[in-house]
């Protein structure tokens, strides 16, 4: 039986939509920007070079656990025998977190699958199954990727602390790379802590807020962040790409780091 907007109980309207505005601009912009990021991140992940310019380590390669250049491994190299790029060992976790994110699911479902392309716009498919079948069934593991995202955020925070050293690993340095990494980790934390899974973990299962005042305060704080979750998702996507590209330019000798002190 046909389901979704073409179901037997839905209104019979021949037009694709009655919306007079340019509803297609938002999914188009998402398609272009997200595709650009995917291409950039894929190329950088498979390069396996130019990801470390002391003391800066690209967030795409942190933590560097494979066969990494000298100075890039702060947690050892347990996967030194890994034949491919070291980034492929850890990118699966932040990538999995973003791909299963509630906001990103809405964004790329609309932009890439037109499911639906916008509110009040019929999708081209005549059958709707939601996320009840493979591979979309895997979206249910989002909360577990959120746990991994917390760990990634802690490691990136540690990288920012190390970025206050100079190229000789002496403390008391701050460059443009330090500032960019600091901004990036703040946006990463805002995106991670505004996550719907974080909100549910903090207070979603409480029956009586009055009996859990601390968790209630945390829940209200996360709820305020959650309002701008989509905005943090995009800001952090841009910031992580900017930081990686800046470190790439430093590592290739294209530019020199701007030093504040």
TrEMBL record:
Name under which the protein is recorded: Integral membrane protein
UniProt entry keywords in alphabetical sequence: Membrane, Transmembrane, Transmembrane helix
UniProt KW Membrane keyword: yes
Transmembrane segments annotated in the record for this chain: 23-47, 81-104, 144-165, 171-191, 232-251
Domain of life: Bacteria
């Amino acid at each position: 039986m046909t389901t979704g907007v073409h179901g037997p109980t839905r209104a019979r309207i021949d037009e694709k939509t009655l919306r007079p505005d340019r509803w297609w601009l938002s999914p188009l912009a998402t398609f272009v920007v997200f595709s650009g990021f995917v291409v950039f991140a894929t190329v950088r992940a498979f390069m396996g070079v130019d990801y470390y310019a002391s003391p800066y380590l690209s967030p795409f390669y942190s933590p560097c656990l494979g066969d990494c250049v000298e100075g890039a491994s702060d947690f050892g190299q347990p996967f030194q025998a890994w034949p491919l790029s070291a980034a492929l060992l850890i990118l699966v976790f932040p990538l999995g977190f973003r791909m299963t994110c509630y906001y990103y699911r809405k964004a790329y479902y609309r932009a890439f699958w037109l499911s639906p392309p916008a509110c009040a716009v019929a999708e081209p498919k005549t059958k709707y199954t939601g996320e009840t079948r493979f591979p979309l069934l895997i979206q249910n593991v989002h909360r577990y990727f959120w746990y991994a995202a917390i760990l990634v955020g802690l490691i990136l925070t540690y990288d920012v602390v190390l970025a206050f050293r100079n190229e000789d690993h002496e403390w008391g340095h701050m460059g443009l790379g330090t500032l960019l990494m600091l901004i990036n980790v703040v946006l990463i934390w805002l995106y991670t802590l505004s996550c719907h899974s974080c909100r549910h973990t903090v207070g979603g299962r409480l029956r009586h807020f009055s009996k859990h005042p601390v968790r209630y305060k945390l829940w209200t704080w996360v709820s305020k962040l959650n309002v701008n979750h989509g905005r943090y998702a995009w800001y952090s996507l841009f910031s992580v790409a900017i930081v990686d590209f800046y470190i790439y330019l430093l590592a290739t000798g294209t530019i020199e780091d701007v030093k504040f002190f």
